[in-house]
Design brief:
Largest sheet: none
Strand content: under 5%
Helix content: over 70%
Structural class: mainly alpha
Number of strands: 0
């Protein structure tokens, strides 16, 4: 079993290393969807930037593209849903805090949230922006600014401290890759359950009369 796991880990790292930038886009889309991989993009971005230091700007940009695409897909999906469905998923008390932040300033809320590292629940912020019908252009601008600040700093750290990071990664790369594999498997199961639940919620919401949003977000 350990041999099989080791082979999977090696193959995963080979795949990530081979596809580089496009692989970061795929991970970024997944990480900013309803099946996030906490820290997954950050780890791969740092490792790739450490291995090929002259490409650090390219890797940061590709991670940014994936994050923005994934965030916008989640935003668009939530935009078609309802606050009630979202409250059943995350809890009314937790969402109320995010609603209050959007009242004070939607742009700052999305931007700052995009910079914060895991385990901050970024997906919840993305979905609240969609449910509240926060303007798409402002949403994309805020998400881009926040994620750019985060990814370019991480890629720069990978470039500057490449030797030290590679030394540590060679010692711990298997646990890191095992963690990514576990998140991928759990995420796949969670995605199946969630989308099945979400389709049911949408059908129920479409049968009820449309209601005006109780919360109003500021720019």
């Amino acid at each position: 079993m350990r041999i099989v796991a080791s082979l999977i880990a090696v193959e995963l790292w080979t795949w990530l290393h081979r596809f580089g930038g496009p692989g970061l886009i795929l991970l970024g889309i997944i990480d900013n969807s309803v099946i996030p991989i906490p820290g997954g993009v950050d780890i791969v971005l740092i490792l790739l930037s450490s291995h090929r230091r002259e490409w650090w700007l390219y890797y940061a940009f590709m991670a940014l593209v994936g994050a923005v695409l994934g965030g916008y897909l989640t935003y668009g999906m939530a935009e078609k849903g309802s606050e009630e469905a979202l409250e059943r998923k995350f809890g009314k008390k937790r969402l109320q805090k995010v609603y209050d932040r959007f009242k004070k300033g939607g742009f700052v809320t999305v931007c700052v949230s995009a910079v914060l590292p895991p385990p901050f629940p970024m997906v919840m912020v993305l979905m609240v922006a969609g449910v509240l019908k926060y303007p798409a252009k402002r949403f994309l601008a805020a998400l881009t600014v926040g994620r750019a600040a985060r990814f370019f700093v991480l890629a720069l750290l990978g470039r500057v401290y490449g030797s030290a990071i590679l030394g540590v990664s060679q010692q711990y790369y298997k646990p890191l890759l095992y963690t990514l594999i576990v998140f991928g498997v759990v995420g796949g199961i969670a995605a199946f359950v969630y989308f099945k639940w979400y389709r049911t919620e949408r059908k129920q919401s479409s049968r009820s009369a449309p209601q005006t949003s109780r919360h109003k977000a500021r720019g």
